[in-house]
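Cross-check.
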Amino acid sequence: MEYVTNLSKEDPSIATTSKFNLEFTYPVQYYDFHVYYVAHNKTSVEESTNLRNKLLLDFPEYCSNGSILVKKLYTDDHVIGPHITHFWEADVARPEVFIEVLSWFQLNHGNLSVLIHPQTGDDLTDHTSSALWLGDKLPLIVEHLPPKDGSIPEFGVKGGDRIPVENFKSHKRRF
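Predicted model, tokenized:
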């Protein structure tokens, strides 16, 4: 996926360290928001693009320092992962930012479906029984999810490795 926003080069820990010493309940390390659209439907693409642009405009500080990592597909020619249609994504690692982004999506998602799921190291559970949905719940191709292995994608690292959940806190200090 193409990163629209990135971690701060000066201090990437800004994106992952709560200003209020808040933490998600273990083993949750961060959250993904998947915003779905139909790539070959002009109305759907416009609504999705407008929503992404509004997110960037409404949260300029969080987007500029990587507290909200926004990613989009390189092309509308194919879908990836367990998803049945096209999407863009926003990832959030700070609990206080998560609350703001969640309530923002509740008020602004319009006709678009949004999958909100934790990153715990169990992709199947994260994307299904632990997931939240705004708008219509869409089916997922769960066979495309990796087996439970206790690892999660590195936060904000394009093409990064999967790391053990228990290493996330020490890993984020070494960006």
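The mean pLDDT is 94. The radius of gyration is 15 Å. Passed to J.P. for a second look.
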